[in-house]
Every structure is written in C-alpha cells, then in structure tokens.
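Weekly structure sync, notes
Attendees: PL, DS, HV (note-taker this week)

Item 1: C-type cytochrome
DS walked through the input record. Source organism listed as Christiangramia antarctica. Sequence as pasted into the shared doc:
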Amino acid sequence: MKKVILRQSTSRQQLLSVAFLFSFTFLCFSQDTPQQDSTSQAMENQAAAADASTASTAQVGAGDATAGKELFNTLCASCHKPYSNSVGPALNGITERHDNDWIYKWIHNSAELIASGDAEAKAVYAEWNQTAMPAFPQLSESDIDNILAYVEQPKPQAPTAVAGSGIGEGSGAGGGVSMNIILGILIFVLVLLLLVLFLVNKTLRNFASASGIVIPEKPKRKPLYKSFVENQFLVLTSSIFVLLAVGYFAYGWTMQVGVDKGYQPIQPIHYSHRIHAGDNEIECKYCHSSARTSKTSGIPSLNVCMNCHKAIAEVAPETATEDYSKEFYDKEIAKLYNATGWDPASRTYSGEEKPVKWVRIHNLPDFAYFNHSQHVSVAGIQCQECHGPIEEMEVVYQNAPLTMGWCINCHRETNIRIEGNEYYEKIHEELSKKYGVEELTAAQMGGLECGKCHY
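Item 1 (cont.): predicted structure, written out as tokens:
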C-alpha cells in the first residue's frame, strides 16, 4: 500500500508542475501586455509630436520653408549650411544678426554693397577671408523670405529612445518580467519533470522486484559493424559511393580556390556607393577616371573626395538608414578630414596627411590580363555588367565569380557594338561575311584566343 501511495503522490507532483507552468506563462503574458501597450502609446505620442513640430515650422514668418528648401539646395548649399559654417557662415540665426533689408541687398549684389562702404558688409567680407559671394539679382524678396524661413527652422533633434521599449528589459513602465527569468523557470520545470520520471521508473522497478515480477531483458544482437563487414556486396557498393563522393567534393573545393564571389570586406573609411552612385547619381568614372584609358580602374585619390567634401561635412538626416545613422556617416567624413589633414573650422590643410589602407575586393590572378579601357571605352560595357548593382550597395562586394568560364560565356553571348565605333568596322564587315551573320560576338572576333588574356 505504501508503494501505491508513493506512485499516486508522484502523479500528483506531475500534475501540479504542469499546472504551475501554465499559470506562470499566462501571468507573464498578462504582465507583458500593458508594457507593450504603454510603449506603443509612447511611440505614437512621439510621432504625433514630431508631426506637429514639422507642421508648425512649415511656415515661418512671411516665407514658405518648403519652397525655401528647394531654393537653398539649388543656389546656396554649395557654400552655406543652415547650422554649421562652410565656405560661408551658418545661416541659422542670420535674421537676428542682420535686418531683412540688409540681407536683401547682400544677396542681390554683395560686391555692390561692399563697394558702397557699408560697415556690416565690409566686416562680413573681411571675416570670411574676402571670399566673394555670387550675386543673385534674379531672386525676389519673396524668394529670399522663403530661404530665410527654411534656414531659421530649429535644428532637428535626434529621436530619443522610449523608456521600457527594449525587448527583455527587467523593468519598464508596465513592469514586465524578464525573458531570462521566464527561461530560467522553464528550465527548472523541465529538470523537475526529468527527476519525476526518473523516480517513477525507479519506483516501478522496486515494486516489480518486491512483487516477484521478472523484467525480461532484451536479447543481445550482433553489432551492426560486424554485419556490415560480413556483407561483401554492401562493402563494395559503399566503397564506390564514398570514393565518388570524395572525388565530387574534392573537385568542387578545388574549383573554388581563388574564387571570391560575395567577398565583402570592411574598409577603413566607410564609403556608400548607394549614396554617391545611387542617390546622388555620381558617374562611376568621375572617381574611377582611369577606367577609360588604363588597364586598371584605379583607386580614387582623396583629393577627388575633397572636391565635394570641402563643403559637405555632414550628411542630410534623410540619408540615414536603420543600419547606419547620421552620426555614423558624419564620423566617417571626419575620418576623411583626418586622413587629408583638412581642418573644417579654419578651412585649411594642415599638411599632415595619413595613408588610407583600402582593402582590395576584385583581384584577378597575375597570369590573366584584363584591360578596363578596352571594355569601358571601346566595347561600351557598363560597370554593372561585371560589378553588379553597384549603385545599390551600401558596402561593396564582389558580385561575379570572375572565373575563366564566366568571362568566356560573356564573350560568347555579347555582340560587338559597332555603331559609331570605327575600331571594329572593317574587321566586322569581313568576319560577318565569313560567318554569315549580321552581328558578331566577341568570341567570333577572336575573344576566345588564349593569347588575348594569357600572354
């Protein structure tokens, strides 16, 4: 009877453990709900406040900030920034430093105002190293008011994190339970169940032993490896299969040696092709200018970067993404300034330059010859044909395998472009008659000859 009572108490422990598990899980979900609701409400309030702030600053004074932004980006952004100095001073707060009539005269013709002996104009001209400002007589006073309305808007603040919005926080507005605590309790319950099962098994065996019940033991079977060794046909078949598999995978591995498709290294200075070639539509050959006339596309000099970044020390807020914030991009521009020795405050070079150790991505073996100018200038091949959607890449990676087979397939499938290309006209006419076709591929023009790439 005692053994029967023990067995019933064990079952009772199991039921109690399962009931405790479900109760605790339900309690955790009920506590998480108000926290999530409060977090959502806080985020909605923050978004509403941001919308209200935007709406309130859309019209400043007598000007239209929206129209002013378009004028500013078109006429002023190359020399001025709203909140920091550039070639000229920061424009935010200009209506407090000067009256509107003076601003109208300065923008319409600053040289004329300086020549008239105006004290303010002469002081500004001297303060900014006597840098001449272009005249804008085409701008009406209404246009200037629009620009002023845009630059006088308060500087946008970075969004602040909502308290208690993090996942798995131990405390918050709703007082939710930490996920670590939940996982710890679940592990404890599972361990408890295993212990109960062990005790039940032990109790049943003791009960059977006390009752004189003999538990039959399973007969021992022949080990599997002995059965396998004794079957000669199975051994032969398995050996052939293993040899074929090893040969297949060994061949596949050796064919991948030196193939770096997908290679995506981190560069010492983050350069976003998405922003430069995509959003700003900068021509690839503006930076890689030697691709038109040389074997290699070349590594752009930092002086090329500074052609624009003398005036661009920070990115626009809308440029930021979920993975890369505005602060991140601004820090990368600061790295560029540090490497070139540029001081954005004094707008002068210190002369202390530091080399940037760029990591090469596309690298052909030494025995393979490839000429960028022949493909870019003569054949008119677009960069994306080999490098992929470069204008969409935040971090550049190798898009194509750049193997011999990949190049040969391209030569077999690509027709020669002869429109306006006198280089191919005569030979194209002769080979078209030879092959009886109107258009020739690069392969038919000799693009598969070994000496073209290996010499």
